[in-house]
Amino acid sequence: MQDTQHQEHYSEQSFWDTLKRYAKKAGREVIETALILYYCAKDSDTPRWAKTAILSALGYFVLPIDAIPDVLVGVGYSDDIGVLMAALTSVGAHVKQEHKQEAKQQLEVWLD
Q1: Burial of 3 from C-beta contacts in 10 A (0-12 / 13-18 / 19+)
Q2: CA distance 109 to 65
Q3: Number of structural domains found in the chain
């Protein structure tokens, strides 16, 4: 999961822009997973290898060219959720309850 090719496309600004633009369209699971990973990556306790995996996945998420175009209704975000879930699985031991809580709070602001 350490695909540094996609990591170079990640920036904090592109992440927030993508989330805000596609929050409702992408769906709760995609956005919540991306937010959990984001907060985990921002945590100083998260090891460097885990941050690399997370930023690579988030880089894929914000990349405008996907394996499955995001504009395809119903399937457009399936590749994104696959990449995000793979990252979440690989770094899961470093995801704290506070990361999940921060993600949930941000999600409620956007989707509820």
Answers
A1: middle
A2: 28
A3: 1
Q: Where are the alpha helices (DSSP H) in the chain?
A: 4-7, 12-26, 28-42, 48-62, 78-91, 97-111
> How far apart are the C-alpha atoms of 32 and 16, rounded to whole Å?
13
Taking the model in full, what pTM does it have? 0.77
Residue 33's SS3 state is helix
Tokens of 79: 């590749």
Q: Running DSSP on this structure, what letter comes out for residue 67? A: S
Asked whether residue 21 carries a pLDDT value surpassing 90, the answer given is no
Which residues lie closer than 8 Å to 42 by C-beta, 6 or more apart?
none
Quick check: helix, strand or coil at residue 72?
coil
